[in-house]
Structures are given as C-alpha cells and as structure tokens.
Amino acid sequence: MKSDIQIAQEAKMKPIFEVASQLGIPEDYVEPYGKYKAKLSGELYNSLKERKDGKLILVTAINPTPAGEGKTTVSVGLGQAMNRIGKKTVIALREPSLGPVFGIKGGAAGGGYSQVVPMEDINLHFTGDMHAITAANNLLCAIIDNHLQQGNALGIDQRRILFKRCMDMNDRALRYVNVGLGGKINGVPREDGFQITVASEIMAILCLASDLQDLKTRLGNILVAYTYDNRPVFAKDLGVHGAMAALMKDAIKPNLVQTLENTPAIMHGGPFANIAHGCNSIQATKLALKLGDYTITEAGFGSDLGAEKFLDIKCRFAGLKPNCIVIVATIRALKYNGGVAKADLSEENVEALRNGIQNLEVHVENMQKYGVPVVVAINRFATDTDEEIKVLSDCCERLGCEFALAEVFAKGGEGGIELAEKVVEACEKPSDFHVLYDENLPIQEKILKIAREIYRAKDVSYAPGALKTIGEIEKLGLDKMPICIAKTQYSLSDDPGKLGAPKDFTINVKEIKLSAGAGFIVVLTGSIMVMPGLPKAPAALKIDINEKGEIEGLF
Q: β-strand 374-379 against 324-329: which pairing, if any?
C-alpha cells in the first residue's frame, strides 16, 4: 500500500474557495493562505448566530499503545462517510505540533485514505498559529525579565516567577535553564525553563477564548509571579496583554482545509491532552456546528484525558452538549493491554483480548457517566479474526452501547459507512449531558472525583509544594475553576507501566499550577513533563525534501 504522504500528494484537492462554498461561506469571509488553506474571519460566526446548531459528535479512544488506535484517522473517515450517506458534516480538529512531527508521530493529519490535506503544510508551519502563540508567550517572558532589569517597580520576586518560556519543539535540554548570566548588562540571573508551545497557557487561552477581546482579557489575567510580599502579579500589571493579543490577531481565526474526499475540516488550536486540555478551539467547534448538520470533533489521547477535559472544561465554558461519543479501539491495542508483546499482536489471541478488553470497558463506562450515547468504533486491521471481533461485539452488547467496524484507513469514507449509520442513529437518541463535578467544590474534592470516577484510583496523595499552591489559589479566591490533570496517556493511572484496568492505586500529585487566564487549575501527576524529549531515533531523521521541492518521510 502507498504511504500516507504518497496518498496525500496524489489527492485531488479543491481550491479552498470551493470548499468554503460547499458550506455556503461567502468569499468575503475567506482569507486564503495559498490555494488550499484559509483563515475564516471572526465576522462569519456573527453572521450565522441565528442559525440552529447541528449535532455534536465527540471522538475519543482507549489508552494509546505502541500498536496505535488511529483516532484522527477514524474522525476523518467518519466525516467522509457521513457525507457519503447524505449528511452535511464538518470535521473540527486540532492542529499538529511540530515537536511530535519531528519526534515520534511523524505527522498528525490522519492516515491512509482518511487524511486532511494539504498534509505537509498542516504538519509543518500551516498558517503560523503555533508561531504566533510562541511569540506572544515569549514576549511576556521578555517583558518580565526586562521589568526586573529596569528597576522592578512591582517588586517581583525572581524566585517566584511562574510563567515559563516555550517553543514548539521537543527539547529536553531546555526544561531547566538559567537566564540573565554574563554580567549586569544581560539582565537579572534567575532559574527559568521552557515548555512545549502546545502545553502553554497561551494555547489554552486561544482555544477557550470566544473572540479577540475575550482573548485579550484572558491574556491579561495570566498569573505570572508573586512579589516579595506575596502579592500576585498578572500580565495586565505589566501592561503587555494588548501587545500579546496583537500578535495573535490572525491566530485566533479558525483554519479551513479539506479531507482527501473534499469534506470540509476546520483545524484550530492544538493543546496536548496529557499536559493540557487536549481540545481544538471553542470558536472552531461552534462555527462548525453552525455550518453543518453534524460536527465531528476529537479530543486527544484516551477518554480519561482528552474526553474528560472536553466534557468537563470545554463543554462547561462553551455551553456545548454532545449528542454522541465515539470510542476508538483496535483489537491489537486491546491485546497489548492484555499482555501481548508488540511483535506478536498480529496473531490471534482471544484470551489476551479478554484480559485487555477491561480497558475498553472502563472507557465506555466512564463516557456513559456523562449521559451521552456511546458508540464503539473498531479500527479494523487485516489480522483481526472473526472470533476476536465476536468477543468485542459481545462486550459492547453487555455494556449497552453500539458497535461498528471501521476500515477507513484502507477504504476512506466507504469503509466508515456502517459506523456513520450507527452514529446517526445514536444522535437521535435522548442525551442527558452533564458534567462530572461542580466547579465550586474545593480543589482537592474535584481532583478526587476525577481520580476515582475516571481513573478508578483509590486515593490521591500530594507533594508539600502542591498543597501550598492549593492554599495560595484559595487565598486568591480563584479556586472555583475546573481541573485540568496532566497525566501519562498510556495508563488510566499515573504510572505508564500499569496497563489494562488497574485498581487500588494512588494518584500522586507533584505540582499544581493556576492557569487563571485559561480559567482552570492544572494538576501535574506522576513523572509527567511539560517539555517532551526526542526518542533515540526521531522521526526527523526520515523527513527530507527532494530536488523537486517535495516533502518525503512524513507519515
């Protein structure tokens, strides 16, 4: 079979104005970035406000494994299939981060015959949103250090500067750095560090802001430091939030692209779900709901991360109510959860599947707690046997949810028609969506609720510094916010080695951060890092450009 990039490069893309016209978008609202991608102006949503919203479908997954689940591939394939059966559907996805593209993933635009295109542009610089976020983030950092250098009128304690620099690349060497070295002319020496752009609060703010002015207000509310006498310092105290918003005036506009089958796709924002809230922008999703009868969106990693945050953070802030939740799984990944080595996953092993299927069961039960109909999508591989499929089908029947096979990687939209029909049926069922917890509860109660209800933990333990931060947040009166837990994606627990459905474990909270501009409290658990590192053999080693200027090696 052809590689993903070969399939993408052979795609017959429509000019972006044609894609927009499929959705009835006038050209005046389309700001092209070349022939095949565009920004959609902020006025477009205002022109559609009176239009009724379509149905909202969330695609999530089991815990990821080295065997892969193909969540984005299924999201794209499902959107193509929905249009094939006559349903006007818009896909709303996150933008890829450069770090994983050159690290492990090598691309994040779907796969096979279910991709968004132009694939190379999307995976590399796209429309520059990531760079704008990085620039705004680092402008604030530069202003903080300049304030210290120019007399420190606010009395900022350089030992208590909370806001970190960022870059959109995996670079572990920048996790902890010293700045301001080299004498008085080069600034005030202090400890600092970098996080990856997609984990920054600026990214979260972009994805949660309702418009440009809301973005500016949220940027001003970023807690950047404390003074020597323990007073909080916000970005607005430094007077820089207006300039930060100016850098992001175009980045806040959603991006329009298309799939291989010319299904419209809106891609905007890209926070990771293991270290951030894992959802595309509220603006993109709400716009898609106005433009189509069905909107398919996804949330990063397993349902314990991205979907929980989509439902408890994004839906809470935006007033969204999903009509259906699709959980993507593969038989190979479930066998991996059941103890089979990666090299042996192609062999039939019903016993291992029965053991690993516990992971799927937890994810289904968790999503059912939100009162929304659930459909399980099995991303089918050629090595899946009839007996293994029967085990999965019986499991779904036992759990009271629909089940469908998807072959969208190999067949595109045609391979997702059964899934599309099941999803349409599910969207017609009653949905009693509700969030998991009351945001007004004490911080530790909210964390415990997520740990027990979603992860199935016994208890939560806190490092002394985390408890101190909780006290500081409560003192500021900013504790009545939802929780965003940073946790390994590979396990329901905070230990990546605990596969399947671990029980009787303790979630270990090492640090807590207040993202006052975004409007949530970040809880870092286990050994999670906000700046990933590169693997021994990074995907960058396979990526190249030939004499024709064509990108090679992206997948």
A: parallel
Task: Identify the pLDDT of residue 106.
Answer: 67
Q: How far apart are CA 537 and CA 171, in angstroms?
A: 14
327: its two tokens = 């959980």
Give the pairing of strands 264-267 and 255-259: antiparallel
- Burial, 275: exposed, middle or buried (Cβ in 10 Å; 0-12, 13-18, 19+)? buried
User: Residue 124 gets which letter from DSSP?
Assistant: T
What average pLDDT does range 412-435 have in this prediction? 97
In DSSP terms, which residues pair with 311 in a beta bridge?
Answer: none
**What is the residue-wise DSSP string for 3-54?**
-HHHHHHT--PPPHHHHHHHTT--GGGEEESSSS-EEE-HHHHHHTTTSPP-
Report the C-alpha gap between 218 and 43 in whole angstroms. 21
Q: Is pTM beyond 0.90 here?
A: yes
DSSP 503-517: -S-EEEEEEEEEETT
Angstrom distance (rounded) from CA 98 to CA 459: 36
Q: Is the predicted pLDDT of residue 108 greater than 80, yes or no?
A: no
User: How does strand 506-515 pair with strand 459-462?
Assistant: parallel
Yes or no: say if 515 and 201 are a contact pair by the CB < 8 Å rule.
yes
193 phi/psi in degrees, rounded to 5? -175, 165
Over 90: is that where the pLDDT of 194 sits? yes
Phi, psi (deg, nearest 5) at residue 383: -85, -5
Predicted local distance difference test score (pLDDT) of residue 224: 98
What mean pLDDT, rounded, does the chain reach? 95
**Residue 482, C-beta contacts closer than 8 angstroms, at least 6 positions apart:** 312, 313, 316, 437, 439, 446, 519, 520, 521
Q: Which residues contact 200 (CB under 8 A, 6 or more apart)?
A: 133, 134, 137, 164, 166
The alpha helices in 85-221, defined as continuous H runs, are 98-102, 119-123, 129-149, 201-208, 212-220
Q: Which two tokens stand for residue 480?
A: 């009545």
Q: What are phi and psi of 250, to 5 degrees?
A: -95, -35
What's the token pair of residue 301?
Answer: 């990693």
Return d(Cα 400, Cα 416) in angstroms, integer: 21
What pLDDT does 324 receive? 98
- Biggest distance spanned by C-alpha atoms of the chain: 73
Backbone angles phi, psi at 450, to 5 degrees: -65, -45
In the structure encoding, which two tokens stand for residue 288, read together?
A: 């898609």
Assigned token pair, 294: 């069905």
Gap between the Cα atoms of 58 and 471, Å rounded: 35
Q: Dig out the tokens for 135 from the structure.
A: 């620039």
